[in-house]
Specification:
Elements lengths: L4 E10 L2 E10 L2 E7 L2 E8 L4 H11 L9 E6 L13 E6 L28 H7 L11 E2 H13 L2 H6 L3 E6 L5 E7 L2 H14 L9 E4 L5 H9 L4 E4 L5 H10 L2 E7 L2 E6 L4 E2 L1
Parallel strand pairs: 3-6, 7-14, 10-11, 11-12
Antiparallel strand pairs: 1-2, 3-4, 5-6, 8-9, 8-10, 12-13
Length: 274
């Protein structure tokens, strides 16, 4: 799996017994995102699907709304201690006529693996920036289908099986079938990778789909879903107050604590069939 994972020595303690062995860990490395050669953001991510990640990130930031607005993306030279290219700098060229991000809103701090928008956006900003409306999305989905999504997501997590240290996100249809699945050390990166893949496939707005995430439903994840036109978000853990407020404002269905047949429906219950 290359740089997706790495091996480190570990002492395994079991009662009075100790054994030394190598352990497989998830890789975490910085990715510098440049737009038109200018630094825009740095995020800590698991290498892989970087082009999807950057497309999804720029979509959620309101920089682009379609894949056609990106003319190209290429890795820049960035060498590690061994002199080899780390592939940790990705430069995006926007298509002609697409406005680049204003220098005033370029991030001057890095995005960590647990922080998506770092306080930059607000509910009002998301409402005015999103090119898609989810309030009138016709999605209807059974609670029995929703209940099966966590197990389907977990079954699709290949790297988690080896490391136990990854978040995952997936887009699912109303029938519960997973359309896209991505893993990353950062929950918001996993979402960016999934949404970026959908964008590049011409599937945004993601009408009639559910975004399933392996962790909590934070404000930035609801924000990313709204910006991609996803009408429903389901999470295995808790949402935040601001996440619920944004979901209600946008007309999104938000489900938390999804574990087996139990779940909390915070907004948009009209889309669920019982």
């Amino acid at each position: 799996m290359g740089r997706v994972t790495g091996r480190r020595p570990v002492i395994r303690v079991n009662g009075s017994e100790q054994t030394r062995r190598p352990d497989t860990l998830v890789a975490e490395e910085p990715l510098e995102i440049r737009v038109g050669g200018q630094p825009y953001a740095v995020t800590m991510r698991t290498p892989g699907d970087d082009v999807d990640l950057v497309h999804g990130f720029l979509l959620s930031e309101g920089v682009i709304t379609s894949a056609e607005q990106v003319a190209g993306a290429r890795y820049c030279l960035g060498t590690g201690p061994d002199g080899q290219n780390t592939y940790n700098v990705l430069d995006v060229a926007l298509a002609a006529g697409v406005e680049p991000p204003s220098p005033d809103i370029r991030r001057n701090v890095y995005t960590t693996s647990s922080c998506g928008i770092c306080g930059k956006a607000s509910i009002d900003a998301v409402r005015t920036q999103s090119a898609f409306s989810v309030a009138e999305d016709p999605l209807r989905i059974g609670v029995d289908v929703i209940a099966k999504l966590p197990d389907r997501l977990r079954a699709a997590q290949r790297v988690f099986d080896r490391t136990g240290g990854l978040h995952a996100a997936a887009l699912a249809g109303a029938d519960g079938e997973l359309v896209e699945v991505r893993e990353d050390v950062g929950r918001h990166n996993a979402v960016d990778k999934v949404l970026g893949s959908a964008l590049r496939a011409g599937s945004t707005p993601a009408t009639g789909h559910v975004l399933m995430v392996s962790g909590r439903a934070s404000f930035e994840l609801v924000q990313k879903a709204v910006m991609a036109g996803v009408p429903a978000l389901a999470a295995v853990s808790a949402p935040s107050t601001l996440a619920v407020d944004l979901a209600a404002e946008a007309g999104m269905t938000l489900i938390g604590f999804l574990r087996g047949e139990t779940m909390n429906v915070y907004t948009g219950e009209h889309r669920l069939t019982f």
